[in-house]
Design brief:
about 80 residues, mainly alpha
Amino acid sequence: MPAGTDQSHAIGSSIVPQKLQEVLPQKVEEKVPNTIHDTGASADTTTNAGVSHATGNSVVPKVVQEAVPKGLEEALPEKVHPTE
């Protein structure tokens, strides 16, 4: 997984914690629905959204876990959001 960018790519409002925004690759940020983390990018909010796929403790807020596609959850580092 690419290293984080030490910056957020949000151009609008976001409920994603700032430190998480700073460590996530831009492509991951852009997959989060704009209603959760507004990057101005289009995101598929229908694929497996509505449930969390975490298998352990996650630093991602529950509301975000349930709003993003499964693929996005799986793209996060295991230490941030375990899914294996």
